[in-house]
């Protein structure tokens, strides 16, 4: 059950209108790593969580907070669009440089949204539910959440340097602070999962019946680049983070299977196949074993 509190978690009011920046701010609303994505991602992870208690509450708490961030950014975008010119002549009349500002605005804000925010990114591409991941494996999801917060913080930081509006900057400072907390929170949650003995690494028992590949493939770094720079990294020597092995440097990768030879395709699909001309199978065909 959800309840809506009319007051915002933090003020979302610019010092003046700016339709051009309203378009840019859409990215952290409806982009791949925007607030709509993380809000829905955390909520779906929480709703799907099969462990009642702290982990489910954590996901639903932060997902609900992020939904509040969606409302704050929508409010900011709508206020940035207030009194925006609707025509080029109007833009030029208000400001000698208004033509450039008008050209940088998103016409969909006015045509589709009536002067309001949209569930879309900065290019006007609609938000997509495919951005959301809720796998059912908490460790895999928490690691993804760390990355999502890192990308969100990166984009907000870039937007911070694209505006001079004090009110907008204050909201961005707040969002950066909360994203910093969330990134640290997911890192702590990963450690908590390990301490609770619930997870070691995502899908740790994918092949529990075989150790055939462990030494050669599970912990061997394969260098596909010229030189040996990458082999100097932490990932090429020393104990592995899962505590089950030692990294080793495999130098140049080697082939473990012969060149693949594919059987002819179904002639009814009209592919270019050996023994097939114009979709008709020749009487003499090579036998592929």
From TrEMBL:
Question: Region Disordered: which residues?
Answer: 230-276
Q: Which CDD domains match?
A: Mn_catalase
Q: What InterPro entries has UniProt attached to this entry?
A: Ferritin-like, Ferritin-like_SF, Mn_catalase, Mn_catalase_dom
**What protein family does this chain belong to?**
Belongs to the manganese catalase family.
Name of the protein in its database record = Manganese catalase family protein
Organism of provenance:
Micromonospora vulcania
């Amino acid at each position: 059950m959800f309840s809506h509190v009319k007051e915002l978690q933090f003020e979302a009011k610019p010092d003046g209108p700016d339709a051009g920046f309203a378009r840019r701010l859409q990215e952290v609303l409806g982009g791949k790593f925007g607030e709509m994505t993380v809000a829905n991602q955390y909520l779906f992870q929480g709703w799907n969580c099969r462990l009642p208690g702290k982990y489910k509450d954590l996901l639903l708490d932060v997902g609900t907070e992020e939904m509040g961030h969606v409302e704050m950014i929508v409010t900011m975008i709508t206020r940035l669009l207030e009194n925006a010119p609707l025509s080029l002549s109007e833009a030029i009349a208000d400001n000698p440089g208004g033509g450039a500002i008008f050209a940088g605005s998103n016409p969909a804000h006015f045509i589709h949204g009536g002067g309001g925010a949209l569930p879309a990114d900065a290019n006007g591409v609609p938000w997509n539910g495919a951005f959301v991941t809720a796998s059912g494996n908490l460790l895999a999801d928490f690691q993804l959440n760390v990355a999502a917060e890192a990308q969100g913080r990166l984009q907000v930081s870039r937007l911070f340097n694209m505006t001079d509006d004090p009110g907008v900057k204050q909201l961005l400072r707040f969002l950066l602070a909360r994203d910093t907390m969330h990134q640290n929170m997911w890192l702590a949650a990963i450690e908590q999962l390990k301490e609770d003995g619930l997870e070691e690494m995502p899908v740790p028992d994918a092949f529990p019946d075989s150790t055939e590949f462990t030494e050669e493939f599970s912990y061997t770094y394969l260098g596909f680049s010229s030189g040996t720079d990458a082999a100097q990294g932490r990932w090429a020597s020393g104990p592995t983070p899962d505590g089950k092995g030692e990294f080793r440097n495999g130098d140049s990768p080697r082939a473990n299977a012969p060149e693949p030879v594919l059987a002819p395709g179904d002639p009814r699909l009209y592919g270019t196949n050996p023994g097939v001309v114009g979709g008709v199978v020749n009487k003499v065909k090579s036998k592929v074993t």
